[in-house]
Write a structure and sequence with these properties.
Strand 6, helix 8 and strand 7 form a beta-alpha-beta unit. The protein folds into two domains: about 70 residues; about 200 residues, 3-Layer(aba) Sandwich (Rossmann fold). The longest helix has 15 residues. It is about 40% helix and about 20% strand. The strands form three sheets. A seven-stranded mixed sheet has the order 7-6-5-8-9-11-10, with helices on both faces. By secondary structure, the protein is α/β, with parallel strands linked by helices. The chain is elongated, with a radius of gyration of 21 Å. It is built from twelve helices and eleven strands. The mean pLDDT is about 95.
């Protein structure tokens, strides 16, 4: 029988050898998950013994993490905007920077009575679910080309008690009705360039869905596709909101302006002072 103290030490040492950045933290998180304990429980009684089945479960988690599998895929969940989302390899793991996109969209939606919102490329459904929580009277359509992603998104809307979101399998706008239009179009599209993709950390490159990351040679392919049809899908005065990658805000803003169909372009920075969200109004 091994103690909590011994397993933490063993896990930390194993993960350190792989070159992971935070082996002690990862070992701690995985042991908490394996023995179904909070962090405090590890340290209030570190000499408590762990049953063989829980130890084996922990060792299995360590093996997966040593192969660079993200902790969120091992535990099957990720916190985002004070909510917990189910995640798996069919969906991108929600990132903190995307919270800025949701916050901006929610602030705009609250100014509209029963707003109609479109979440393009919903993935885990984190954007749609958080918007529904923040703006309960919103009519939200969330689309994704991946049926596996939509299955996860539907589970997340149920788990978070946000009934009423319409999920639709669609390649961007393709499956929408010909006359459907919206007050806000919100999207966190794939924006990693081909060159950047090759140098991503193994946790991302080997495990997260490639089609949710790669945006072509310059990372802007999906912005072009979306902007081609977005004006006809927005109600008068409607707005489009994009999350963008590092140093892409200027390029995306120029693309929006070049359509001649948007004005009032605004760029919002994240907590790291990186230009992260681009907003524009249909004119």
């Amino acid at each position: 029988m091994s103690s909590i103290r011994e397993l933490l030490s063993e896990g930390t040492e194993l993960l350190r050898k792989t070159g992971l950045n935070n082996p002690a933290r990862d070992s701690e998180l995985l042991l908490c998950f394996a023995i179904e304990s909070g962090k405090l429980g590890l340290y209030t009684n570190p000499d408590r013994t762990v049953t063989p089945d829980k130890k084996n479960l922990f060792l299995d988690y360590l093996t997966r993490r040593a192969a660079f599998e993200p902790i969120s895929y091992i535990t099957g969940k990720k916190e985002f905007m004070d909510s917990v989302f189910l995640v798996n390899r069919s969906v991108l793991i929600p990132r903190p920077e995307t919270e800025h996109l949701v916050e901006q969209a929610a602030a705009l939606a609250k100014q509209i009575i029963a707003p109609k919102l479109l979440d393009l490329g919903t993935g885990s459904g984190c954007i749609a679910v958080c918007l529904k929580k923040s703006v309960p009277d919103a009519e939200i359509t969330a689309v994704d080309i991946s049926e596996a992603a939509l299955i996860t998104a539907r589970k997340n809307t149920k788990a978070n008690g946000t009934a009423g979101i319409r999920f639709l399998r669609s390649d961007l706008f393709d499956a929408l009705g010909p006359d459907e239009s919206f007050d806000l179009i919100i999207s966190n599209p794939p924006y990693v360039t081909n060159e950047e993709y090759a140098s991503l950390l193994p946790e991302t490159r080997l495990f997260e869905p490639e089609n949710a990351l790669r945006g072509g040679s310059d990372g802007l392919d999906f912005y072009r596709k979306i902007l081609f049809e977005a004006p006809s899908r927005l109600l008068p005065g409607g707005k489009i909101l994009f999350e963008v990658g590092y140093r892409q805000a200027g390029q995306v803003s120029d693309m929006i302006e070049s359509t001649g169909k948007f004005g009032g372009i605004k760029v919002v920075r994240d907590l790291a002072y990186i230009e992260r969200v681009v907003i524009a109004r249909k004119i």
